[in-house]
Amino acid sequence: MPDDVQVEAASRAVTADADAWRWGGRRWEAYFALVLASTIIYVLAEGESWRADTVAAVLLAALVPWYLLLGRRVVERTAPRPAALAYLAGTVVLSGAASVASPESSLVLFALCPQAFLALRWRGAMLTVLALNAAPALRFLLEAGDAEGVVSFALWAAVVVGFSAIFGFWVDRIIRQSTERRELIAELRATRAELAEANRRAGAMAERERLAAEIHDTLAQGFTSILMLLQAADSHLEHDPAQARRHLDLAAATARENLAEARALVDALPPAGLESSSLEQALDRLVRRLGEELGVPAEFTASGRARPLAAGAEVVLLRAAQEATANIRKHAGAAHVSVRLTYGSGAAVLQVRDDGEGFDPDAARGFGLRGMRERVAQAGGRLEVDSAPGAGTVLTVEVPA
């Protein structure tokens, strides 16, 4: 999956997770509203004293603005811990006072106790649950007429508290896992975004290096050749106009080839030399052009069963030949140049040989030889340079066929 698609998928996952969290909060609100409304109706309908029942109903109704002020952020876990403690303390006071006024108000605890586990960790939530149940329990104990009623209430309270402890622990685990999952997905989204940006930059850098190599091997070498031909034409202009015209014609032909190469680079096409001819023909033209420019014997030969190579392999061989002949033109001072292309069973081998000044390959610096090595390595081939000062140079490039 592409990086931008991965990042988009992670973004949708984070958004969906956040929406699910908010939707869970809205369901808790609906449950809270239902239990609160039912408790108020039950208190007003079943209570024994209308004054006490009215007071209890007012206290229960006060839970609504209190929830809207603090409770919603507490349930969604967007409020700081002091705000959560303040909200729960307020619910303990309001629900406890309502339970003292009317015992039927204790039904609202079915909605308030779960909020404690949404707002606090398990231990703090259990303490809050005990505090919420303290006022109803105290009133019952004060009004109980016999020991049997106290024992019955104690057993019931133990069951309720035990159930709350187990259920609350489970809810706390779910909340923690959900929160951790949301944080992990957010980190994944950020990491993938950083990875996508790093890959984009790496791709841009690789493309920049590719274009630099293409420009060096084509346009830069062509301009160098044109400049040398123009200088040669200028030196022959007065005493040998025919030779000067020959150099100018070669310069014009090189300029046309450079223009074709520039258009191929812009259009991301194969090298101009390979677009309408074979590799052998392109190499033959390159060698003949070198011989004409330098005025020395330059020959191209091909051996083995000729066959089309992969486009990338042909480009590597042509660019290597262009770089090698450009170096011969600028530095070698050779009296003879030979280029040979050999088709083997599993590889194609290009060999460029000159009898010029030679050089020390280990001491060579510059973009040309380094770029040539990188090209050949990317094609899965190998490059060898056999040269020494005064001993000429043999460049061998082998690529899989």
Topology:
Layout: H1 3-46, H2 50-61, H3 63-75, H4 81-101, H5 109-119, H6 122-143, H7 147-236, H8 241-266, H9 272-275, H10 279-294, E1 298-303, H11 311-332, E2 337-343, E3 347-354, H12 367-378, E4 382-387, E5 393-400
Parallel strand pairs: 1-2
Antiparallel strand pairs: 2-3, 3-5, 4-5
Structure description:
Helix content is 73%, strand content 9%. It is of the alpha+beta class and 401 residues long. A hairpin with a 5-residue loop joins strand 4 (382-387) and strand 5. It contains twelve helices and five strands. The model is unreliable at 1-7 (pLDDT under 50). The protein has helices spanning 3-46, 50-61, 63-75, 81-101, 109-119, 122-143, 147-236, 241-266, 272-275, 279-294, 311-332, 367-378; strands at residues 298-303, 337-343, 347-354, 382-387, 393-400. The chain has a five-stranded mixed sheet, covered by helices on one side. It starts with a helix and ends with a strand.
Rg (C-alpha, Å): 43 Å
The largest pleated sheet is described as: 5 strands, mixed
Low-confidence stretches: 1-7
Query: What global shape is seen?
Result: rod-shaped
Portion of residues within helices = over 70%
Q: What is the overall number of helices?
A: 12
β-strand percent reads 5-15%
Mean pLDDT: 79
Q: Widest sheet: strand order?
A: 1-2-3-5-4
Please tally the β strands and state the result: 5
Sketch the topology as an H/E string, one letter per element: HHHHHHHHHHEHEEHEE
Structural class: alpha+beta
Distance between the termini: 31 Å
